[in-house]
């Protein structure tokens, strides 16, 4: 089969790889129908995730058709169309019993990280019963693909961790796919005012279409001054960091109100400054996290009932065989006006 293989910092190649095999009775083999590229994949290629070994097939998102299952698999069958969760869940370890699936002792984020991933024609999924979700009839495949990672990530690590409440003023720093996913799902809780901050005018325009009340571009506006005006000097109740660089985390610290919540979603490749000398007196809460995907069934129902339409995040589509071109587009997202790219197996 063909797959996108990591060959060290800055190196990847679409090449021939051996077909995946069932290794455990709880495994399934899934033929990929659609997959996509995540910002985390770019972090891997930049060398920010040194635990990824050369020769690894990248990717942790996808929908596909189950082609084979181990003898212990009960919840999915050959022929089922499924959503592949970016988090592998054994369901029985201490972390899983606490719903900390991202810290599963025999799973967590392993696809495209510690085992071969989904940017391939086929993929092995460990603990298939807990790590695959059957796709109901009539659900848009592109909407379902967003449930692999970005929608539960934005919701759980941004909105839930940030404790967004009705009437809150919230700011999202970073209007990329995860930031826009957090914007979409924050509206479950009826915040009074949503502010989106980004340096990309196209993404800010998209954020307005998705429900942002105010947009701020730091290249032309002073973020702190603008938010002070909007909040009458109080600051925002919730600041959700969706980029993963020191400058955006600093913005969160600068704009948060007393008693507020900073929810860090972005993947940081280097350390940031934590200004405890200014924050200690403000009674704020700072959260971080890797998605657990325990919200996926609920989000799937929200898509079924047309409460959210995450397929609107898709801007580009390519055959899976053109994944190297898709990476170039995604790596130059601002110039290409790219959000999520859908790669479809031929």
From TrEMBL:
Record-annotated membrane-spanning stretches: none
Family, as annotated: Belongs to the zinc-containing alcohol dehydrogenase family.
Enzyme class, broadest EC rank: oxidoreductase
EC number: 1.1.1.14
Tagged with keyword Zinc: yes
Lineage of origin: Bacteria, Pseudomonadati, Pseudomonadota, Gammaproteobacteria, Enterobacterales
Protein name per Swiss-Prot or TrEMBL: Alcohol dehydrogenase
Protein source organism: Xenorhabdus szentirmaii DSM 16338
Gene Ontology MF term list: L-iditol 2-dehydrogenase (NAD+) activity; zinc ion binding
